User: Fold these one by one.
Assistant:
Number 1:
Amino acid sequence: MAGPEVNIDRGKSLLLKDQGNKCFQAGDYAGAEALYTKAINHDPTNPLLYTNRAMSLLSLSKKGSSEPQDPSAIPVLTPIQIENYEKVIADSLSSIRLHAENMKAYYFLAQAQIALHRPSEALASAKEAHRLCVEEIHKGGKGASSIGPITELVLRCKKEAWEAKEKERLDAQGGLVRELQVLLEKERDRRVEELHSQAATEMTDGEGVNVPVEEQKITEEYARKIEEVRNMGVAAGTVGEEGKRRNVPDWCIDDITFSVMVDPVVTKTGQSYDRSSLMEHLKRTPTDPLTREPLRMEDLRPNLALKEACDEFLEQNGWAVDW
């Protein structure tokens, strides 16, 4: 059954959009969202209206939220924030369906997904936003102002995706430790039971066994074994990570920001930098950071081999994002 027909009025829709933009600029995000909704009702074919509403909803979700005191803690979202982030995802996807090469929609989509603790989905969206941003830059568009924030988002998503995998690994490892502990406890109880059976038999035969002393020995023996298993689990979960923290390879470090590169590009001299940091440098001074010779964005070439290596390194070492 066909849905109701929509009487499109693009003039009215654009007027409402402009009013929504004024509300947004004034910090009235709820008012902006309401006006963008009215604009969509008059023209549901305009992808820009969905990204504008998504932007308002993002701002509403972030407004009034406070960072947790513990940086490692996962922020607790209110039901309204969760609902708003879900709406951002819906609007971003609607915009993408109307315009596939929509950098802003993918950027907003990634922000909502990472806020809802969906790092794998967020990383895919952030990477697509980054790809579209680079394409826009090459075409001479306005992507240069967005490359920095999008690169930061890619790094955050990479880190959280790694942390999610690491949590799964540690949870599985903790399960194994608990399983070994249960087996040792069962073995201990079996030996204590055998001790008591042996004592009962020896009493019948006229011989005695010091049960309390022997039972204490068994209990202490298995307490040591259980503690060793626990310590091995802790060591396996931390030593490897700490060891990696001391070994960040020089080839993946950007010489401008000293951070791990996400999208390395190579200059005419053969030196590689992260695209976002080099573009920020070129805004200030159009020269090669190393040789001080004139350098333009058109002179940069993607270093695909290095990018692949950096991607692999970050995938396995998400902690390096904060290095």
Number 2:
Amino acid sequence: MKTAIFIDVQNIYYTTRDTFRRSFDYKRFWTHIESKDEIIKAIAYATDKGDERQQKFQYALRSIGFNVKLKPYISRADGSSKGDWDVGITIDILESAKQVEKIILLSGDGDFDLLVQKVIDKYGCIVDIYGVKELTANSLMDAASEFHSISNKFLV
């Protein structure tokens, strides 16, 4: 099945870290999807702090097969930070839905629930969500064709 993968890297990083104290295994995930679907497009959306550790991670994602899109990491005066990719992910998914049969979104962000429903209704795509169940919005899980809970299988 022609498939496009979209990863909200910040969401997956923090939800797996906070829940499991472990990291997501992107290579194992890629191998799993590739064994059953034809990956047409794969984009990982990340923030760029410019540090060496993060650059190595981005290189690793690229070597697996992901196109890595970066947005500057913004640190605010009040101590909060921002690196929001929601609109970019939405645009890319809507543009890709015409070319694939399945969309896979890795995120627990409930802001994507309307997008998921629109892609299913308008384009007839299967939309699978991968996320940490305890930290994934119920509305997103409900909107998905299928929800896959991230567990030990995809952790390092």
